[in-house]
Specification:
By secondary structure, the protein is mainly alpha-helical. The protein has 11 helices and 3 strands, in the order βαβαααβααααααα.
């Protein structure tokens, strides 16, 4: 597969030194979102002193930041799509920053909100095995499973918090994409959507 860009939403503190050689072999770009908030040095102490409810609120706050605090990063991602680039994009868990980016992309493609949210929630199914493993490792550090669950999973409340900001502060998703991020949604659709098949009449 040809890749024009590998877009990495992680901060430097989330990466391993051994990744540098790998990154140099590919058209890799760093565009950090939530820099420092999700580093192990910050997350582990937070988990140790928090309740499940506090971790749920922590995640809600992160998602509320996406539409307002990281517009350049998400605009850059969508501009790559607008320019018809083949993109591999990721973060650490592939569900929060990547999940929000995917919601934006699907929305630009004209996918309705219930479908984009259902797609976002699929991360819980795909990450189930790795979440179990991570929970077991964190238990060894004295962190209860119900405390770590809000961090490891996705929740309709989380993406709903982002959507609420978009709706209330920016007038809805299409206004956000076009007027705030300055995205040409029609170009993205032309790049990535297949025209509907023509019906055959006798």
């Amino acid at each position: 597969m040809h890749l024009d860009v590998i877009l990495d939403f992680r901060a430097t503190s989330e990466k391993q030194p051994t990744e540098k050689a790998f990154a140099e072999q590919f058209p890799w770009q760093s565009d950090p979102v939530l820099a420092g908030n999700l580093a192990p040095s910050a997350i582990i102490p937070l988990l140790k002193r928090s309740t499940p409810e506090q971790m749920h609120d922590f995640m809600l706050n992160l998602y509320r930041q996406f539409p307002s605090n990281y517009q350049p990063q998400f605009a850059h991602f969508l501009k790559l799509a607008e320019d018809n680039k083949t993109i591999l994009y990721h973060c650490t868990a592939g569900k929060d920053r990547t999940g929000f980016a995917t919601v934006l992309l699907l929305s630009a493609l004209g996918v309705d909100r219930p479908t984009t949210i259902a797609n976002y929630l699929e991360s819980n199914r795909y990450n189930a095995a790795s979440n179990t493993q991570a929970t077991q490792q964190l238990q060894k550090l004295g962190i209860a499973p119900d405390v770590v669950a809000p961090l490891l999973t996705v929740d309709p409340d989380y993406i709903g918090a982002s959507m609420q900001v978009i709706d209330q502060q920016y007038g809805g998703m299409q206004h956000y994409l076009v007027d705030v991020l300055h995205i040409n949604v029609m170009k993205i659709r032309a790049n990535y959507l297949t025209p509907p098949a023509q019906s055959v009449t006798n």
